[in-house]
Amino acid sequence: SEDIEDVSLFDADDDLSRRSKKSKIRHPVASFFHLFFRVSAIVVYLLCELLTNSFIACMVTIILLLSCDFWAVKNVTGRLMVGLRWWNQVDDDGRSHWVFEARKVPTQGSRISSEAEARIFWLGLITCPMIWVIFAFSALFSFKVKWLAVVMMGVVLQGANLYGYIRCKVGSRKNLTSLATNYLGKQFLRQ
Fold first, then answer.
1. pTM of the entire structure?
2. Is residue 4 situated within a structural domain?
């Protein structure tokens, strides 16, 4: 069995001395771009109708920002900030295989990613798709059908990264439903 680095997904350790050692952001550029593209897409979506009347310009800008976010999170920030990566591989028979990896713990016991980076990563990864889902319901119930396609791109692209990284974190073989049930049970017992 290989050792994998444990990164905080839901709750962080309460030990203050441990937190102070790991609170330094080691990859500030990656942390910036992890949030920049996704927050920019949300801001453009919210302010688009106020700034311009061109739906096409807004749609293209939002989709470009979402695409840059998808690529940056999947290929750069996930590796640097939390040591996780995922990809799809097609074998010679044409079957698709999903691969989920976590960085091994270094031999010295020092961690490559910090607790602050892990918090930024997971906060951005979980919060932004939820915002796009809210936008989807808003567009659907306000009958803004032309915006529904743009919002669905946000849900799909950011949701795919969220799903891939959760599978990396919990392992590709584990059932996500049982993991959530176990987590909620532990929280209930802790109280």
1. 0.74
2. no
Does residue 9 belong to any structural domain of this protein? no
Which string of DSSP letters, residue by residue, matches 72-103? Answer: HIIIIIIIIIISEEEEEEE-TTS-EEEEEEEP
Structural domain tally of the chain? 1
What stretch of H or E contains 68?
Answer: helix 55-72
Rounded Cα–Cα distance for residues 191 and 180 (Å): 17
Render pLDDT for 103-136 as a digit per residue (tens, 0 to 9): 776 655 455 668 889 999 999 999 999 999 999 9
Angle at the Cα of 178 from the Cα atoms of 174 and 183, rounded to 5 degrees: 110
In a domain, 87, yes or no: yes
Dist. CA 38–CA 84, nearest whole Å: 19
Domain for residue 33, yes or no?
yes
C-alpha span between 38 and 61 (Å, rounded): 12
C-alpha atoms less than 13 angstroms from C-alpha of 27 in its C-beta half-sphere: 21
